[in-house]
Specification:
The chain is α+β, with helices and mostly antiparallel strands. It has 21 helices and 23 strands. The strands form eight sheets. Strands 2, 3, 4, 5, 6, 9, 15 and 16 form an eight-stranded antiparallel sheet that branches. The longest helix has 23 residues. InterPro entries: CBS_dom (IPR000644), CBS_dom_sf (IPR046342), GCL_type2/YbdK_subfam (IPR050141), GCS2 (IPR006336), Gln_synth/guanido_kin_cat_dom (IPR014746).
Length: 639
């Protein structure tokens, strides 16, 4: 049975039937564990590569179904949104040159996808969050048209309601309303799998939890969403909120989100994780289960346990337990879901090597990590690393406070090196990939640092869209070169070789940091606001953010001149006395050409941007001036 048969649980009877299959699968898993059915003589690693597709302007390229058709056979599949794709790597035995083989295979598959996407007019990018992604891109129209994705959207909407707020506080603050779970599609990751023997699962899983924070701290690559600089790994906050199905109540009641780090150390068996997930999270998705598990077990054949897999796939642990079958024998894996996609393939494999080495070598240093590190500290470290990256200070073993840089450099890299040696990984592979981590930590240049530093420089001499597009373009160039991110120079506006503003939407270049007045405000306040903020236009709005008028510098000067000529006092006049009512407005998804046409034909200097009657931005001659300057510089550079 394929995932395509996953569907919405429509009524109680379907939920009850599906739960019976889940419990049956749990019994089968328990039996297989008790009777040593699992593969233990071979340990494999694997990976899943998610990627973004972009058009020549660096914006999303929503052609996944067409690209997959052209790719034909292979390990390629859809993702939640039509602008993402996934590559499922073939498992490799965890020994010898498996890491360099993983890099080779990844390069080969990524290049194959890139070639096909380029033939269709786009390109691909490995990044945790596409810098140029816009709110309109996560509209439901970009949902991949497959039953399982439609069922997931419907299930989340039923549990949470259609509209929800996204609130993330970082260097900037993002506060927006959304009506689609497709927001999660902004995230693209690089998932790494490690096969684990059943009797080692508990200890390895707890190690994975303990080291999540430091390995994430040096791998962060998703600092910007919708032009806001948020967490070092904003994917974490975004995933937690976009899939959160909980309702806010009047009373304090603990409830765990479906995207979770977990609540405690694992004590006895992988079964405990499944039991907790079944206990805490109601069935969200169902499936047409046709597998006759008992019969297969009687015949000595390992069942797929599809019902359990489907339920497991609707609970999003950052370290996910996995059950699978290879060569007819069942196996267990830990899936690391914390790594972002990119910045380059070699960075990704280096992140994987660091994590794999730690999982294989940690118990030689810490026999039982649960005795050395409090679980609450492991969880707190994870969220701290998501926010701060390499600037994090961890609460580590023995109640020590230690910086991420010192911990990784002095303690964890040697452990990872020993762990890789223990797996008989080639010494050249160990030196290469752990060397990348060491240099990245030494230089302090993670993918997130590079993006934030580049953005900070670029927005001083351009607008937000130009800065984000330049960063996206520079990322693509650097990925093609293949050098790890710690060697990248910062993005420059000269990277905007193919920037064509004629395709811009209003929301991509409008000013969103707005100063507004109310109709009862006095004119002296208006005059000071225009002077202090060096602006020429002030929208007038009510308490619900509805646009009700507009005041211009020219209007105000005219009013003061008239009052002076007449010997009148303007002190009693308010905004409502002089404001322009029902000003001409524009929609955020209108094109830049449409905005220019309105300004020219109406002979006005600004356009308030309105959606659902609410003011969300403003565009004026100043916005167009910045675009013009950039274009002139581009033309000059082309001489």
């Amino acid at each position: 049975m394929g995932e395509e048969r996953v569907k919405l649980a429509d009524d109680n009877e379907q939920v009850q039937n599906f739960m019976k299959h889940v419990f049956r699968d749990m019994r089968a898993l328990k039996t297989m564990l008790e009777n040593d059915w699992f593969e233990t003589d071979t340990i494999r690693i694997g990976a899943e590569q998610e990627l973004c597709m972009v058009d020549p302007n660096g914006k999303v390229f929503s052609k996944s179904m067409e690209v997959l058709e052209k790719l034909g056979d292979g390990n390629y599949t859809t993702e939640f949104a039509r602008f993402n794709l996934e590559i499922n790597m073939e498992p490799l035995e965890f020994t010898g040159n498996s890491l360099s083989q993983m890099e080779h295979d990844l390069h080969e598959d990524v290049e194959r996808v890139r070639k096909v996407v380029r033939e269709m007019g786009g390109d691909i990018l490995l990044t945790g969050i596409l810098p140029t992604i816009r709110k309109m891109d996560v509209d439901i129209k970009n949902l991949t048209p497959l039953q399982r994705y439609e069922a997931l959207c419907e299930a989340i909407n039923r549990l949470r309601g259609k509209e929800f707020e996204l609130r993330i506080q970082g260097m900037d603050e993002l506060l927006m309303k959304f009506d689609s779970p497709l927001l999660e599609a902004c995230n693209t990751g690089f998932q790494v799998h490690l096969q684990v023997k059943p009797d080692e699962f508990v200890n390895r899983y707890n190690i994975a939890q303990a080291v999540t924070a430091p390995v994430l701290a040096c791998a962060v690559n998703s600092p910007v969403l919708f032009g806001k600089r948020l967490w070092a790994e904003t994917r974490v906050a975004l995933f937690h909120q976009s899939i959160d199905t909980r309702q806010v109540g009047e009373h304090l009641r603990d409830s765990s989100p479906r995207v979770t780090f977990g609540n405690q150390w694992l004590e006895d068996s992988i079964l405990d994780i499944y039991k907790e997930d079944i206990s805490r999270y109601r069935v969200m998705l169902s499936a047409e289960v046709e597998e006759e598990v008992e019969k297969l077990m009687e015949e000595g054949k390992a069942p797929e346990l599809m019902a359990l897999k489907v339920h497991n796939s609707s609970v999003y642990r950052w370290n996910r337990p996995c059950y699978g079958i290879s060569n007819g024998k069942p196996h267990l894996r830990i899936e690391n879901r914390i790594f972002p996609s990119g910045p380059t393939v070699v960075d990704e494999v280096s992140n994987a090597a660091f994590w794999l080495g730690l999982l294989n070598g940690f118990e030689d240093e810490y026999k039982d990590i649960t005795k050395e590190l409090d679980f609450d500290n492991a969880r707190m470290n994870f969220f701290a690393a998501s926010k701060m990256g390499l600037d994090t200070k961890f609460m580590w073993t023995g109640d020590r406070k230690v910086s991420a840089v010192d911990l990784i450099k002095d303690e964890l890299l040697p452990i990872a090196r020993n762990g890789l040696k223990k797996a008989d990984i080639n010494s050249s592979d160990i030196d290469t990939y752990l060397g990348v981590i060491e240099e990245r930590v030494k230089s302090a240049q993670t993918g997130s640092y590079w993006v934030v530093k580049s953005y900070g420089n670029l927005v001083k001499e351009s607008n937000r869209d130009q800065a984000l597009t330049a960063i996206t373009s520079a990322m693509m160039k650097n990925q093609n070169k293949g050098e790890p991110v710690h060697k990248w120079g910062l993005a420059k506006l000269e990277d905007l070789e193919n920037w064509k503003p004629s395709s811009l939407m209003v929301e991509e270049f409008m000013t969103t940091d707005l100063f507004t007045v109310h109709k009862d405000d006095i004119l002296e306040f208006v005059a000071n606001l225009l002077d202090w903020r060096k602006i020429r236009y002030l929208p007038v709005e009510d308490d619900q953010k509805h646009l009700i008028g507009l005041i211009t510098m020219r209007q105000l000067l005219r009013e003061y001149s008239k009052a002076e000529d007449a010997g009148e006092d303007t002190g009693t006049k308010t905004v409502s006395d002089i404001m322009l009512q029902n000003p001409i407005t524009i929609h955020p998804e209108a094109s830049i050409m449409e905005a220019m046409r309105i300004l020219r034909e109406q002979k006005i200097g600004c356009l308030p941007v309105v959606k659902n009657s609410r003011l969300i931005g403003i565009i004026s001659e100043g916005n167009f001036m910045k675009i013009t300057i950039r274009l002139l510089k581009t033309l000059e550079n082309q001489k």
